[in-house]
Structures are given as C-alpha cells and as structure tokens.
Amino acid sequence: LAKTTQPISMDSYEGQEVNITCSHNNIATNDYITWYQQFPSQGPRFIIQGYKTKVTNEVASLFIPADRKSSTLSLPRVSLSDTAVYYCLVGGLGNQGGKLIFGQGTELSVKP
Amino acid sequence: GAVVSQHPSRVICKSGTSVKIECRSLDFQATTMFWYRQFPKKSLMLMATSNEGSKATYEQGVEKDKFLINHASLTLSTLTVTSAHPEDSSFYICSAPRRTYNEQFFGPGTRLTVL
C-alpha cells in the first residue's frame, strides 16, 4: 500500500481557502485517493474521493495531477467548525480488499 | 447514506476482564471490516482485517490472542480485548468498505478505559 505524506499542521482564518497537499509517490494503478476528516473522539468522516483530474462536491474539491503522485484537498471557505485532522488515504477495493493505512494527517486550525 | 455503528461507545472495566466491541454495517453488507486503534493525538493504527466466514488477518505486532476478532455475519464484526490491562486503554474504531462505491465507512469509535 502506498505511503502518504502530508504537512503535520496548518493554520487558517475563517473565510479563507485552505489547500492541503498530500504526496503518494507509490500509488498503484487501481488505487483511489480519499480524504477523511476527523474530530476528536469521533470516527473519520468521508470528505471526497477521486481517481484522476478534478472532483468537486458540496464541501470540497480534490485536484489530482496526471501522474497521480500527489493530490490537493481544497476547502473553499473554512469556518471554525472545519478545525479537525484531515487524512489523505490511498487504496481501493482492488488493493487488499480496501485496506487503508493512515499517515500522520494534517491538523487544521481555523481561527476567527 | 451508509452507516457503520459501534457498541458500546465507551466502556470502563477493571484490569483482567474481557471487553467485547461490536461493529455493524447498518444498510449494506460487508464481507470485510477493519479494526483500528488510536491513541491520543495520534493517527489511526490498523490492527486487523476481519473476514466474514474466515479467520482475521492481523497486522504485524498485534497479538491475535489478545484481540479476538469474529466476523459472524455480513453485517457484524466483534473485537474482544481479552484480559485487558491499562495499556489497552485506547479509542477503537472499525470500518467497512461498501463495494458499490469503493468507499469506506468508519464507525463512531469506542473509548476503552481499563482501570
């Protein structure tokens, strides 16, 4: 399974756009890239998933370059409630049945 | 949407007792589930893969006799922490992949405190 690397922490202010980049140099052909959000004492919550190019949903966008060796999660206008740990994961059902190995994650702190 | 539940949400027990944690997929079937452990301010650590109808697969360094996993049906996996000790105190989280959408859903977690 591909290892992921993200910044340990990031700070932002309310209303700003936040971009968190993740590197996954050893991504396999059948791997998807999925981002999760976790609040303290809760299970991770799905944010967005993509395979290539750009994906957008109601809460975020995911940018994936052609080589797929990195990805960027974009949160358009953050609020205080977006303070959480964000995990980038690489894997899929075609790779060890969906097994996911968590990296260190990025602790995002949003200030007023 | 798909939901994975865990029971109990928190448990406090005395050292030496065994504790069972249930993980259920509520609206989809899961032939595979995963169990994680998370210590404060740390990332999730994969403990084992629970396989319906067969033995669980444990990650390196995880004692299979200590953490018993049973995947009795397509919607239920249980993790039993046997002879629990204070160092087993942690946040235990399960997950289940939903095949149709190549998406994995996580349970809300179980906080175990061993006194």
Mind explaining what this structure looks like?
- The complex is a heterodimer of chains A (112) and B (115).
- Chain A has 112 residues and is mainly beta.
- Chain A has no helices and nine strands.
- Chain A is 0% helix and 46% strand.
- In chain A, the strands form two sheets. In chain A, strands 1-9-8-3-4 form a five-stranded mixed β-sheet, with no helix packed on it. Chain A has a four-stranded antiparallel β-sheet with strand order 2-7-6-5, with no helix packed on it.
- In chain A, β5 (53-56) and β6 (61-64) form a beta hairpin.
- Chain B is mainly beta.
- Chain B is globular and about 40 Å long.
- The chains are: A mainly beta (112), B mainly beta (115).
- At the A-B interface, β3 and β4 of A face β4, β5, β9 and β10 of B.
Report the mean per-residue pLDDT of chain B as an integer.
93
pLDDT averaged over residues of chain A: 93
Q: Which range does the strand content of chain B fall in?
A: over 45%
The greatest inter-chain interface is formed by: A-B, 23 and 24 residues
Profile the largest sheet of chain A.
Answer: 5 strands, mixed
Distance between the termini of chain A: 38 Å
Spatial strand order of the main sheet of chain A: 1-9-8-3-4
The count of β-strands of chain A is: 9
Q: Identify low-pLDDT runs of chain A.
A: none
What is the count of DSSP helices of chain A, taking H or I runs of 4+ residues? Answer: 0
Strand and helix map with partners:
The complex is a heterodimer of chains A (112) and B (115).
Chain A: E1 9-13, E2 18-23, E3 32-38, E4 45-50, E5 53-56, E6 61-64, E7 70-75, E8 84-91, E9 106-111
Parallel strand pairs in A: 1-9
Antiparallel strand pairs in A: 2-7, 3-4, 3-8, 5-6, 6-7, 8-9
Chain B: E1 4-7, E2 10-13, E3 19-25, E4 32-38, E5 44-51, E6 57-58, E7 67-73, E8 76-81, E9 90-98, E10 103-106, E11 110-114
Parallel strand pairs in B: 2-11
Antiparallel strand pairs in B: 1-3, 3-8, 4-5, 4-9, 5-6, 7-8, 9-10, 9-11
